[in-house]
């Protein structure tokens, strides 16, 4: 929160993670986010702040949990009830522990967690990385492990960590420290970073948390909503299963935008693979808000297991086409967005979304199969509106089955920070082919702790031609091992590492950059690599 709303987000929690291959000392790791097995699709839930501000306590939260179930929202995939700021007393206890406000939570946070869990839902909580929250309540700084242990003992499943009262604190260092504390707490907790994008969190967030705010706080109006969407869209390459760009909570149903604009809002968050965190009053939803928030076809786009964030493929005077590759060959979600006030025709060309020939088109808001089309499709789009499509080259294209949410109890396991489970032996995959050579520049920065580290890399194509597929190679000078990568696929043999593009960031245009990274382990010392090549060409080091 910047002194307005902040976000509280949460994600469907599915266990199982890390695809890795180990064979004769050679292993491959798929692009992925922080290694806690959570948020493999964007979190879906609710947060009190947009609608209620600080005026909530146990009774309001329990009513919202009841409404999430009775309305059908839980069956549609929403599962987190998240408490935002102002839940504690203004001072810590004599032993340094945080204390829930006894007037708001007379039986403590644990009682609310038990109630929420009894509904098959999960409970989230808010705190701050600094000395105080945005409303002046105690922050975690200096009490990271103590607070993480408290949250775990209360039954918290999701933690949103804001960035107020943080002068002089390094964001990456402090958020990493909190993440390590959560992993040591003995409970699996989805971790939401909320520094409003001030520290370029998209460059290092994938190695630290499950979602990260890319923007300031959203307001319930068209201009603010589009601004947050655009800011988050600039960092699409950072998103992948387990870690997501967060443009802030949803304002659908709060009354500041028209029904058409609310529908656009929800569509843009879905094409962005953004967390779907409701910010309304679930006990008092209009029919239109409910139909928007429970559209199974649109939710399925957001929750697509491939985990690609959509990108803009064409723009003509405010008439835009956004596309998102989906699981399965030839399946693409498309949003035709009209930023203007009057209706206009918008065309999506197959050549812009990576398909050709004949394709079937399904309208995700009318829930209708429109037909088969060759080369392109044109629709009339209302002012401030969207037409959202699923385009398929391999069949009818729909309807999309309603996703069945998996509400599983949160396991009480204690992961060891910096240690990755040993993956099963499987055949070594064929590396992604690359083409094109050119000059390049590499920035390599490390945040390390005893025995482990996070490396963030920026690769810039300083040549004059586009690289259609890229492979960065380097050699570790010490006893270092890659354990998990994001925004790229890491393969290591001995000290030699090859980092190749992920499916969604293979194209590296001249002058553009990509930001892969990885977690690793080390012993003895952890010196940086001293030389890099990109597609066989030596790179300068920034």
The share of residues in extended strands comes to: 25-35%
Report the radius of gyration as a whole number of Å.
23 Å
Q: Helical segment tally? A: 9
The parts where pLDDT drops under 50 for at least 5 residues are 3-32, 395-437
Q: What would the CATH topology of the largest domain be?
A: TIM Barrel
Shape: flat
Can you identify the CATH class of the largest domain?
A: Alpha Beta
Tell me the count of domains: 3
Overall pLDDT level: 87
Major sheet: size, sense and barrel closure? 8 strands, parallel
Reading side by side through the largest sheet, how are the strands ordered?
9-8-7-6-5-4-3-10
Could you name the CATH homologous superfamily of the largest domain?
A: Aldolase class I
Distance between the termini: 33 Å
Q: Helix/strand-derived class?
A: alpha+beta
The total of beta strands comes to: 31
Q: Architecture of the largest domain, according to CATH?
A: Alpha-Beta Barrel
Binned, the helix content reads: 10-25%
Report on this model:
The protein is α+β, with helices and mostly antiparallel strands and 542 residues long. It folds into three domains: 38-302, Alpha-Beta Barrel (TIM Barrel); 311-392, Immunoglobulin-like; 440-541, Immunoglobulin-like (Sandwich), CATH 2.60.40. Helices cover 17% and strands 29% of the residues. The protein contains nine helices and 31 strands. The chain has helices at residues 49-52, 58-70, 108-118, 144-154, 171-183, 222-233, 259-271, 287-293, 296-302, and strands spanning 20-23, 26-29, 44-47, 80-82, 122-128, 158-162, 190-193, 211-213, 244-246, 276-278, 311-316, 319-325, 331-338, 344-349, 358-363, 368-374, 376-381, 386-392, 440-449, 452-461, 467-468, 471-475, 479-486, 489-493, 496-500, 507-508, 513-514, 517-523, 532-534, 537-538, 540-541. The strands form six sheets. Strands 9-8-7-6-5-4-3-10 form an eight-stranded parallel sheet. Strands 1-2-24-25-22-29-30 form a seven-stranded antiparallel sheet, with no helix packed on it. Helix 2 runs parallel beside helix 3 (108-118) and helix 6 packs parallel to helix 7 (259-271). Residues 3-32 and 395-437 have low confidence and may be disordered.
């Amino acid at each position: 929160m910047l002194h307005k709303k902040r976000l509280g987000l949460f994600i469907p929690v599915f266990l199982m993670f890390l695809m890795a291959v180990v064979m004769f000392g050679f292993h491959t790791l798929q692009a992925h986010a922080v290694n806690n097995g959570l948020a493999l699709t964007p979190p879906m839930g609710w947060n009190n702040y947009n609608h209620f501000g600080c005026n909530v306590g146990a009774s309001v939260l329990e009513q919202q949990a009841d409404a999430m179930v009775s309305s059908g929202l839980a069956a549609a995939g929403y599962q987190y009830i998240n408490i935002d700021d102002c839940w504690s007393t203004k001072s810590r206890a004599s032993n340094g522990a945080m204390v829930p406000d006894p007037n708001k939570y007379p039986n403590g946070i644990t009682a609310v967690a038990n109630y929420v869990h009894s509904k098959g839902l999960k409970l989230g909580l808010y705190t701050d990385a600094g000395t105080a929250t945005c409303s002046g309540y105690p922050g975690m700084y200096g009490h990271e492990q103590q607070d993480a242990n408290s949250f775990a003992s209360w039954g918290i499943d999701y933690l949103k960590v804001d960035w107020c009262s943080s002068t002089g604190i390094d964001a990456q260092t402090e958020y990493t420290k909190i993440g390590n504390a959560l992993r040591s707490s003995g409970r699996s907790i989805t971790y939401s970073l909320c520094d409003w994008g001030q520290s370029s969190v998209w460059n290092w967030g994938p190695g630290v948390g499950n979602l990260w705010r890319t923007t300031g706080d959203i307001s319930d109006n068209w201009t603010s909503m589009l601004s947050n969407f655009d800011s988050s869209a600039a960092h699409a390459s950072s998103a992948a299963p387990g870690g997501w760009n967060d443009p802030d909570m949803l304002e659908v149903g709060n009354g500041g935008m028209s029904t058409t604009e609310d529908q656009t809002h929800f569509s843009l968050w879905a094409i962005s693979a953004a967390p779907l965190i409701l910010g309304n009053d679930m006990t008092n939803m209009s029919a239109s808000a409910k139909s928007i928030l429970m559209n199974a076809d649109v939710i399925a786009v957001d929750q697509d297991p491939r985990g690609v964030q959509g990108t803009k493929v064409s723009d003509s005077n405010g008439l835009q086409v956004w596309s998102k590759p989906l699981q399965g060959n030839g399946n693409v979600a498309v949003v035709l967005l009209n930023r203007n006030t009057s209706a206009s025709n918008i065309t999506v060309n197959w050549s812009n979304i990576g398909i050709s020939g004949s394709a079937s088109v399904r309208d995700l808001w009318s829930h209708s199969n429109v037909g088969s089309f060759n080369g392109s499709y044109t629709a009339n789009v209302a002012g401030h509106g969207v037409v959202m499509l699923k385009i398929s080259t391999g069949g009818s294209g729909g309807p999309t089955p309603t996703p069945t949410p998996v509400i599983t109890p949160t396991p009480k396991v204690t992961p060891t920070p910096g240690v990755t489970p040993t993956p099963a032996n499987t055949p070594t995959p064929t590396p992604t082919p690359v083409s094109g050579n050119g000059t390049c520049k590499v920035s390599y920065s490390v945040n390390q702790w005893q025995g482990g580290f996070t490396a963030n890399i920026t690769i810039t194509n300083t040549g004059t031609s586009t690289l259609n597929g890229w492979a960065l190679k380097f050699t570790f000078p010490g006893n270092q091992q890659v354990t998990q990568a994001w925004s790229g696929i890491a393969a290591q043999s001995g000290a030699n590492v090859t980092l190749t593009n992920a499916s969604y960031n293979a194209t590296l245009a001249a002058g553009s950059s990509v930001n892969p990274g990885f977690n690793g382990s080390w012993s003895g010392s952890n010196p940086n690599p001293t030389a890099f090549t990109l597609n066989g060409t030596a790179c300068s080091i920034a």
